[in-house]
Amino acid sequence: MSIEANRPVDEIMRQWPATIRVFLDYQMRCVGCPIGCFHTVEDACREHGADRVKFLADLRAAAAKAPVPAVEA
User: What pLDDT, in 10s, does the model give residues 26-36?
Assistant: First the structure.
């Protein structure tokens, strides 16, 4: 799965915890927000006046830099 504008912000933060810092850097207090499971990245950008293209690029960059969790056998 990839980070797209139509994905809920809560889902993105759960799957890629490193993206939480990006939300905070953009002054988005989506972490723990009760509507985070309903709001998409598109919604959050519109609500907070953020450039969607740049925000998505920053989310993807943060997710790409994050270490991949080890899978236990």
Answer: 999 888 889 99
